[in-house]
Write a structure and sequence with these properties.
It is a single chain. With about 280 residues, this protein is α/β, with parallel strands linked by helices. It contains eight helices and 15 strands. The protein folds into two domains: about 5-105, Beta Barrel (Elongation Factor Tu (Ef-tu), domain 3), CATH 2.40.30.10; about 110-280, 3-Layer(aba) Sandwich (Rossmann fold). The strands form three sheets. The protein has a seven-stranded mixed β-sheet, sandwiched between helices. It has a six-stranded antiparallel β-sheet with strand order 4-3-6-1-2-5. The protein has a two-stranded antiparallel sheet with strand order 13-14. The protein starts with a helix and ends in a 5-residue tail after the last helix.
Length: about 280
């Protein structure tokens, strides 16, 4: 089956999972694993940076997981934190094991709107995974964008996901990378503090810049507020939400937030769209 025919099939039957197999598996942090998948029919899943798939651990359940690989090609990659029955089952899969894939779904990062602008990516913890495809696109088409900056915060040095890749990005001359951790032992010689403390160290033109943020909701709220104080427009700040997504097509209502459905209308939204909801602690 051609890639185009497979994309048409997935669009026509969004609730039917396709069978894939685990091609590779690696441990990224104490509780997060990255799976390389290959669809059983040999087709390549075409997706945009920021979109997600519904992954099925057969006999256990299904979970929404952002794609963390390179949208330009290569294996289908997902990075998963083992926090519940389904995610633990997914991360326990071994090479050769079957896995169900539905997708891709959702609204991705605004790559077209970012062209010609400075791009600031701010990630908290495993929030770097949904931003990773956008970063691949930015570096793969580097001439289309202005200054590119990645600010990354983790709980501890051991929780730095994609550590070797982050180190390789820091060694490049066409991207600025700054990393911080919340807590560290004496062996850590980097910055210590929340990720918002890195914003004052970054260089960008707020009048011609676009920000992409992913991480815990409280972190995204404070980062967005800090960027507004720096001169960013609320429509130039994009956040990726992940809330109780079950069906991925806006039918079940589990991910409803006000008048929107995270799975169908997101997961990427502007700060202007989310501001009033992020200010309500009960949500």
């Amino acid at each position: 089956m051609s890639d185009a025919a497979f994309a048409t099939l997935m669009h026509a039957q969004p609730m039917v999972p396709q069978v894939a197999h685990v091609r590779g598996r690696r441990k990224d942090t104490p509780d997060a694993w990255t799976l390389d998948l290959e669809l059983a029919n040999g087709a390549r899943l075409i997706y945009a940076p920021g979109q997600f798939n519904m992954l099925t651990a057969f006999g256990v359940g299904e979970a929404a997981i952002s794609v963390s690989g390179d949208p330009a090609g290569g294996p289908l990659i997902h990075t998963i934190r083992a926090v519940g029955p389904v995610s633990r089952a997914l991360t326990a899969l071994e090479p050769g094991d079957p896995i169900g894939v539905r997708g891709p779904f959702g609204v991705g990062w605004p790559m077209a709107q970012a062209e010609g602008k400075d791009v600031l990516l701010v990630a908290g913890g495993l929030g770097l995974a949904p931003l990773r495809p956008a970063l691949y696109r930015l570096l793969g088409e580097r001439a289309r964008f202005g200054r590119v900056t990645l600010l990354f915060g983790a709980r501890t040095p051991e929780d730095i996901v994609f550590r070797h890749e982050v180190e390789s990005w820091r060694a490049r001359f066409d991207i600025d990378v700054d990393v911080t951790v919340d807590h560290a032992a004496s062996e850590w010689h980097g910055h210590v503090g929340v990720v918002t403390t890195l914003i004052s160290r970054a260089t960008f033109d707020p009048c011609n810049a676009l920000a992409m943020i992913c991480g815990p909701e409280v972190m995204m709220r404070f980062v967005a507020m800090a960027l507004v104080e720096k001169g960013f427009g609320e429509d130039a700040i994009y956040l990726s939400m992940e809330r109780n997504m079950k069906c991925a097509i806006g039918h079940c209502g589990h991910c409803q937030l006000g008048p929107t459905f995270i799975c169908r209308d997101g997961p990427v939204f502007t700060y202007a769209q989310l501001k009033r909801f992020l200010a309500i602690k009960e949500l």
